[in-house]
Design a protein that fits this description.
The complex is a heterodimer of chains A (about 220) and B (about 240). Chain A is of the alpha/beta class. Chain A has 4 helices and 14 strands. In chain A, strand 11 and strand 12 form a beta hairpin. In chain B, about 55% of the residues are buried. In chain B, strand 3, helix 4 and strand 4 form a beta-alpha-beta unit. In chain B, strands 1, 2, 3, 4, 8, 9, 10 and 11 form an 8-stranded mixed sheet that branches. In chain B, strands 5-7-6 form a 3-stranded antiparallel sheet. In chain B, helix 2 packs parallel to helix 3 and helix 5 packs across helix 6. Classes of the chains: A alpha/beta (about 220), B alpha/beta (about 240). Chain A: Keywords: Transferase.
Chain lengths: ~220, ~240
């Protein structure tokens, strides 16, 4: 396998598609990195489920205000034009179609747009949080993920094998190797690392990759 | 009219065995730590209340607040969206030992079920959870070509919430993202008890900035310098602590 993008680089690529003025929810963990790579001159407004619009960077250590946290329960700061609201309003923003983009992590994504990202099976304590809400209502639901699991198995599949978060909800997947859209229940390859051949990419993808039009080079700065 | 009560012990006196209690907060933000600890004190002194059903977004952290309530053995069932957290050992151990029930609810559905309970709406349809394990057994209906899952309201006997300022009529304001579930829970309980950093006379809060109107609040108690779960956990605090 040739080199792959780091998580920071995947987050950078996803950030390039966020337009000026977009209202965006970033899932807990890896997706939070996307906020660091907003292109200059564009201002996105970030939403957190626990009731803040337009929060910003974490405060310096020791200056945390624990009433000012994000959904991952990490301390954040406010940007000018921020707003607070209660949980029912927050999820009205989510389900009511008011968010432009939700960017989430994934265990598995299927070619029909199904997403599995909340449960790895019956062991342990189940926890869902806002994941099942976020996949509904945002105008665009994108996933950022390594292209394969830690064991090298495909995460992009014909059908998910793990418990679903939502059905038919994902429209674009940014991976460590490629950018892939979901159109008409199929994976359509949009960009791939230039050093990687189509066949190499197909070999680590669990469903057929379609090509319509040109496949662009996935070029990301060193980060 | 004066809804203030003299102390925390009086504020939690109305909670009985087997009741359903909503507890505000998201993680530590907006969590009424002092009310929860007063409830634990009562249990340790009298053996009551027990067999509680608790509604909260989480399952507590460390050994204070909600986690301490669970650890004390007062909770039969938890209704929440995210019982896994940085240090949820108390709930995790009891759950894996089969000693506590869990009803897992997606976060937005949890919020809307509570809102519906407070608004007199017995059920509603949501796209959330359609086609997933959490929709099993629930009625599904199609609207404008899309499938929605029917969810029921949630109501409680008592809600314990944390506010920033309360007035004697029970009007409340909140601080920053400590608002979260608190205003919804105020609406959905037969008895809502709010702890507030400051209790002021009626007229002391500009009506333009009231978040929870006093009609939803039955009792207020002043806790001038409330503890924050994150600070307690960073200090490895344990409630009630070793004597």
């Amino acid at each position: 396998m040739t080199a792959k993008l780091s998580n920071n680089q995947i987050a950078w690529r996803a950030a390039q598609d966020i337009t000026d003025g977009a209202y965006v929810n970033l899932g807990i963990g890896f997706p939070e990195k996307v906020a660091q790579y907003q292109p200059p001159g564009r201002e996105a407004i970030f939403h957190t489920e626990n009731g803040i619009l337009n929060f910003g960077e974490p405060p310096p250590k020791g200056q945390e205000d624990w009433d000012l946290i994000n959904a991952g329960k990490k301390a954040v700061t406010l940007k000018p034009g921020a707003a607070f609201f209660h949980h029912a309003d927050s999820f009205a923003m989510v389900r009511g179609g008011h968010l432009d983009v939700a960017i989430l992590g994934a265990y598995e994504v299927a070619e029909n747009g199904d997403l599995a990202n909340w449960s790895t099976g019956p062991k342990g304590v189940p926890a869902v949080g806002g994941a099942m809400d976020l996949v509904h209502g945002a105008k665009r639901v994108a996933v950022i993920t390594d292209h394969v699991t830690k064991d090298g198995k495909p995460k992009l599949l014909k059908r998910c094998t793990l418990p679903l978060t939502g059905v038919g909800c994902v429209t674009r997947v940014y991976t460590s190797l490629a950018v892939i859209d979901i159109e008409g229940g199929r994976f359509v390859l949009k960009e791939k690392l230039p050093a990687l051949s189509f066949d190499e990419l197909q070999a680590v993808t669990g469903a057929e990759l379609l090509v319509s039009g040109t496949v662009a080079d996935l070029i990301v700065p060193e980060l | 009219m004066d809804k203030t009560v003299a102390n925390l012990a009086t504020a939690v006196a109305g909670i009985e065995d087997g009741m359903t209690v909503m507890i505000g907060g998201f993680g530590g933000a907006g969590s009424p730590i002092e009310l929860i600890h007063a409830l634990i004190d009562r249990f340790l002194a009298t053996g009551h209340p027990k067999d509680l059903t608790i509604i909260n977004n989480n399952a507590g952290n460390g050994h204070v607040g909600l986690a301490a309530l669970i650890e004390a053995g007062m909770v039969k069932k938890l209704i929440c969206s995210f019982p896994r957290s940085a240090d949820p050992v108390v709930f995790t151990d009891l759950y894996l030992a089969g000693k506590i029930e869990l009803e897992l609810v997606p976060q937005g559905t949890l919020a809307e079920r509570i809102r519906a309970g407070g608004a007199g709406i017995p059920a509603f349809y949501t796209p959330t959870s359609y086609g997933t394990d959490l929709a099993k057994g629930k009625p599904v209906e199609e609207f404008e070509g899309r499938a929605y899952v029917r969810e029921r309201w949630l109501k409680a006997d008592v809600a314990l919430v944390k506010a920033e300022t309360a007035d004697t009529h029970g009007n409340l304001t909140y601080r920053a993202a400590a608002r979260n579930f608190n205003p919804l829970m105020c609406m959905a309980a037969a008895l809502t008890v709010a702890q507030a950093r400051r209790v002021v006379p009626a007229g002391g809060i500009d009506p333009e900035i009231v978040i929870t109107p006093g009609i939803f609040v039955q009792q207020v108690v002043e806790v001038a310098d409330p503890q924050q779960e994150e600070d307690l956990n960073r200090a490895n605090a344990v409630y009630p602590g070793v004597a």
